[in-house]
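Module 6 notes. Inverse folding takes a fixed backbone as the condition and produces residue identities as the prediction. Think of it as a translation problem where the source language is geometry and the target language is the twenty amino acids. Below is one complete input and output pair. Work through it position by position during the lab.
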């Protein structure tokens, strides 16, 4: 049994492995681990107290996939409900759908008994937003931001995808060999309202298949959406590539993306035999919570604590705002 996670999953990985050791499923383990990250108010890229969109509204994305059945559930742009991964699991288990968005996701969460919280973002984080936008936007733009009809131009100025991103990735394999993968995020800080990244898109930021393995992404989600990165990695294993070869190939595919939006990507992956890997295009950068993006973590059921492992670096040209 094993759990693999992005570095900011350190607050939840012990709970995740404990679920497996108690006989829980991979789905149970992924949900348990991510929920603790979503409630970690020091992490401003996942769940409660995350950086909001440019208008100051927090919109959460999450997805979960059962590698045994290929069943999936996801939410995007969900307001006022911090437990995004748990709502995504309920979508998978209770509905004939895969993805709910916005007000529909919030309504479903209420029907499933999840608590609402309209004050998920602290005054401190809102003050960071105010300072950032006031610094980067043209004079007077912040004061009229809710009434402007050129918000898209302000987003291009205010949003730096190389700094204002973040996601938590969890992959678990249980005693039966079943694999589950989960992803949760608030997306880019100061994003355009309604923006959806790769995290709730099955095949882009998240994919799991017991027969081959699983993958999850963090970084500039638009890249993973366009290249179907998580699914591509698993598909490469289906074609006979090793975990390391498949992970590298999925990263290298991103080099072929044209246009001005190619930036940065990291991923974690697991094969059906319990081998794990992490790859990144960020050789020296650090993320927002002072954990190296160049590392990921894992823990097996016979380990007392998780270990941090360096990701393999793959260069991807940065073409933002060319």
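Target side of the pair, the amino acids:
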């Amino acid at each position: 049994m094993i759990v693999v996670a992005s570095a900011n999953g350190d607050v939840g990985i012990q709970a995740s492995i404990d679920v497996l050791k108690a006989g829980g499923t991979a789905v149970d383990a992924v949900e348990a681990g991510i929920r603790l990250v979503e409630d970690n108010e020091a992490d401003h890229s996942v769940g409660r107290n995350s950086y909001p969109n440019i208008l100051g509204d927090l919109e959460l994305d999450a997805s979960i996939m059962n590698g045994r059945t290929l069943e999936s559930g996801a939410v995007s742009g969900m307001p006022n409900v911090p437990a995004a991964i748990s709502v995504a699991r309920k979508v998978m288990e209770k509905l004939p759908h895969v993805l709910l968005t916005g007000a529909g996701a919030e309504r479903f969460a209420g029907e499933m008994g999840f608590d609402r919280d309209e004050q998920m973002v602290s005054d401190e984080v809102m003050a960071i937003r105010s300072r950032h936008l006031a610094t980067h936007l043209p004079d007077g733009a912040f004061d009229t931001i809710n009434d402007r009809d050129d918000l898209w131009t302000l987003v291009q100025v205010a949003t730096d995808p190389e700094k204002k991103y973040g996601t938590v990735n969890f992959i678990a394999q249980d005693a039966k060999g079943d694999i589950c993968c989960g992803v949760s995020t608030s997306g880019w800080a100061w994003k355009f309202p309604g923006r959806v990244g790769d995290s709730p898109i099955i095949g882009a930021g998240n994919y799991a298949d017991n027969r081959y393995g699983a993958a999850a992404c963090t970084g500039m989600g638009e890249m993973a959406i366009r290249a179907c990165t998580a699914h591509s990695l698993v598909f490469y294993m289906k074609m006979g590539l090793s975990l390391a070869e498949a992970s590298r190939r999925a990263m290298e595919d991103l080099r072929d993306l044209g246009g001005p939006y190619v930036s940065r990507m990291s991923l974690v992956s697991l094969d059906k035999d319990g081998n794990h890997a992490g790859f990144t295009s960020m050789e020296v950068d650090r993320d927002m919570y002072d954990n190296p993006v160049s590392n990921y973590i894992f823990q097996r059921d016979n380990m007392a604590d998780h270990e941090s492992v360096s990701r393999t670096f793959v260069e991807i040209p940065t073409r933002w705002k060319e």
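Reference fact for the lab report: The two ends are 45 Å apart (CA to CA).
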